[in-house]
Amino acid sequence: MKVSGNDGISTAVTSSVGYANAPQNTASKDVKKEEPIKIDISQEGREQYRKSLAVHTQGKMGLESVKAQKNIIKHLRMDSDFESKFHKEAEMMSAAAKEKGTTMSIKDKAENYFSTYAKMYDEIVQGYEAGTREIYVSEEYGYRKLTKEEELSALDKAFGKIAGDFEKRETINQNARNIIEEGFKKFAPYRKARSGSTTAVADKETKAGSTTTTTEKESEETTSNVIEGISKKMINAADLFKAGYGKSDLETVLAGIKMYG
Q1: Bridging pattern class, strands 10-12 and 2-4
Q2: Which residues pair with 139 in a beta bridge?
Q3: pLDDT at 2 (0 to 100)
Q4: Which of 19, 85, 131, 247 has CA 20 to 30 A from 6's CA?
């Protein structure tokens, strides 16, 4: 006997059923073919059946199928992967500069982001040309292998976001420094009065303060000029790199691109 659900799932029923005080109908003895009995299986029941079937199928997967599945998971790329690489490289460069007792300037940071972009671009292209790069993305019905063009497009998108965020962050930092400096200047006379400075000393401090203020103002203006439009400069440098890529070795191409002319 077969039991059929509304979704087409059929199950063979082999157990016999006994009836108490079953009616003795001689015509039933002549029936040679059983008619299927239809039973409505709930949605929950059908879903449970599919899950058990999936587990059963997975258990029968061959060794090669298992290896292929592991390879996909190993090379599965998330949307944030490129951005993470940019940030990781920036942290490494900053830490290296700190060990040397120096601090990276805003220009240095921008150029480091651009250099990281160029290296990742080259890594992607070289990997596909050599046939050694396999990157997958997860989709609704499984996994899909990316093409070189899709990866490079994703890299450009990530770099654009990195450049925009970098300019916003440095602008906020510069504004904060300006506010602190203005507050420091505002309360300078009160600090001098409390310290009991003589007129001569006060004049000397005022002149020194005036010189320092002029130098700091020039520095602030220079920094502001560097920050303004820096994201556009980074993206323009990336465009120049792509236009010159492949015409010479990587180092030569990079050396020919000046973010700040």
Answers
A1: antiparallel
A2: 142
A3: 45
A4: 19
Helix (H, G, I), strand (E, B) or coil at 76: strand
Token output for 29: 């003895």
User: C-alpha distances in angstroms, 171 versus 12, 175, 184, 236?
Assistant: 72, 6, 20, 20
Dihedral sign from CA coordinates of 230, 233, 239, 242? negative
Distance (Å, rounded) from C-alpha 87 to C-alpha 256?
25
Residues facing 142 on adjacent strands: 139
Q: pLDDT tens digit string along 47-78?
A: 665 556 555 555 555 656 655 555 555 556 55
Ramachandran sector of residue 101 (left: φ over 0; alpha: ψ -120 to 50; beta: rest): left
pLDDT the model gives residue 261: 67
pLDDT at 208 over 80: no
Cα–Cα distance for residue pair 107/221, rounded to 1 Å: 15
Residue whose C-alpha is closest to residue 59's, from 139, 74, 51:
51
Amino acid at 132: T
**Residue 183 dihedral angles phi and psi, to the nearest 5°:** -65, -40
